[in-house]
């Protein structure tokens, strides 16, 4: 076990400034309004720093700085940009513990998650997109006897993104890695609840980039989080043996509480086949009760603090609604400050507690009879961002996965992975150069 010292205490690996301005054009710049917002850590509920309050005037300054830097950065070669991205990855790796603690203090997540998932995935994103652009080649198509289409890609110029509070650093990396790889300058607006850890990241990597290529405007209003009730389906053969597969499946069930359930793809609906329903729910409940809720800076802690008291109140209102609608509370359902116990409900899949999303450590469980019944229940929600399928029969698992409406389906696992390099397409535009090699007119006029 390791217990990291809290920022501001002796021995802490993270040191915050008392106040952070906006980061614009390679330097910290005071907000136009002169206003600042206190930043609360959900770990203790205390204000630990202030950040500049962002306004349209601040955004305009940041966009202007990015626009000025975009042309030079966009004209660099893919090899040059890949080198910088690899340097960023190396620097983040050197400061991995510092960044993990900073993420925990800002977001409330267990530091064990930040150490083994968030920061390593942040590093991987920069290395992945560096490799993608370093090895990429253009395309040439013969479109006529004497004409070729030379296809390449150009950056958009300036990318302006608002970040959710669910994974502050990883969400920043999901924008920065592909956007910088594509040759864009970037303006980021972290969520009001979690603006501080990105300043720690800037302190680590800012000197590796030309001024104005990355800009950060903080203190804007709450950023909405897109989410949905993602189904996690357990077929009858899951508990056929008391083996590693069953243990893995139970861990997959408990993933509803990862990051306090504050994940847009959290498996917050569990569907268990009727023939194993009581057995698997009992095992899953035991696993859930073993999740250690507590100080996020302790590496033994498995579930930390929800991001804000407002979010805590939203989760608890949802729990009370479930009780009032007749859903059975299997375990959990209590809160203390920012800390909410991992909670299991069971009930009818048509109830609100089963269909509505909450972004908290809550899972609603129901049963299904067969494959078709599972798909019918799972696909009742058309806004699925993710889904899980647990089955020893690979053919069944594959076929069910194909028919689920979710954008991403995990089969016999439910863990985060780096962004797919296809994300590059979001940050650049195709360029077609149509070249004729003929010295003759076409004869149109």
From TrEMBL:
InterPro entries the UniProt entry points to: Ald_DH/histidinol_DH, Ald_DH_C, Ald_DH_N, Aldehyde_DH_dom
Any Pfam family: Aldedh
Taxonomic superkingdom: Bacteria
Positions of the Aldehyde dehydrogenase domain: 35-221, 247-421
Keyword Oxidoreductase listed: yes
Keywords associated with the record: Oxidoreductase
Similarity remark: Belongs to the aldehyde dehydrogenase family.
Listed name of the protein: Aldehyde dehydrogenase family protein
């Amino acid at each position: 076990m390791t217990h990291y010292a809290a920022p501001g205490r002796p021995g802490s690996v993270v040191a915050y400034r008392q106040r952070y301005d906006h980061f614009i054009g390679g330097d910290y710049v005071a907000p136009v309004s002169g206003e600042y917002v206190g930043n609360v850590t959900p770990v203790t509920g205390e204000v630990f720093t202030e950040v500049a309050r962002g306004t349209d005037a601040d955004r305009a300054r940041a966009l202007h700085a990015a626009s000025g830097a975009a042309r030079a950065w966009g004209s660099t070669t893919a090899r040059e940009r890949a080198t910088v991205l690899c340097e960023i990855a190396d620097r983040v790796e050197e400061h991995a513990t510092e960044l993990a603690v900073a993420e925990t203090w800002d977001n409330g997540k267990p530091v064990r998650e930040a150490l083994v998932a968030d920061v390593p995935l942040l590093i991987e994103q920069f290395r992945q997109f560096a490799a993608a652009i370093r090895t990429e080649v253009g395309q040439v198509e013969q479109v006529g006897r004497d004409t070729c289409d030379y296809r390449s890609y150009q950056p958009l110029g300036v990318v302006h993104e608002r970040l959710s509070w669910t994974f502050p650093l990883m969400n920043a990396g999901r924008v920065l890695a592909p956007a910088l790889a594509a040759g864009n300058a970037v303006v980021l607006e972290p969520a009001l609840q979690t603006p501080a850890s990105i300043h720690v990241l800037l302190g680590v990597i800012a000197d590796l980039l030309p001024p104005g290529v990355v800009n950060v405007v903080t203190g804007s209003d709450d950023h909405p989080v897109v989410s949905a009730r993602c189904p996690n389906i357990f077929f009858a053969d899951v508990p056929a043996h008391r083996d590693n597969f069953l243990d893995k499946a139970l861990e997959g069930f408990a993933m509803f509480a990862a990051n306090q359930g504050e994940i847009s793809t959290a498996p917050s609906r569990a569907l268990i086949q009727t023939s194993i329903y009581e057995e698997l729910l009992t095992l899953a409940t035991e696993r859930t009760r073993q999740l250690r809720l507590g100080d996020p800076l302790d590496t033994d802690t498995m579930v930390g603090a929800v991001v804000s008291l407002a979010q805590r109140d939203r989760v608890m209102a949802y729990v009370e609604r479930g009780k009032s609608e007749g859903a059975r509370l299997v375990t959990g359902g209590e809160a203390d400050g920012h800390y909410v116990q991992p909670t299991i409900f069971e009930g009818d899949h048509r109830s609100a507690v089963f269909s509505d999303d909450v972004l908290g450590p809550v899972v609603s469980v129901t049963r299904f009879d067969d494959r078709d019944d599972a798909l019918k229940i799972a696909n009742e929600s058309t806004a699925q961002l993710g889904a899980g399928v647990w089955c020893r029969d690979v053919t069944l698992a594959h076929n069910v996965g194909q028919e689920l409406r979710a954008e991403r389906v995990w089969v016999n696992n439910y863990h985060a992975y780096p962004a797919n390099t296809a994300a590059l397409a979001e940050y650049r535009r195709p360029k077609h150069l149509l070249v004729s090699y003929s010295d003759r007119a076409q004869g149109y006029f």
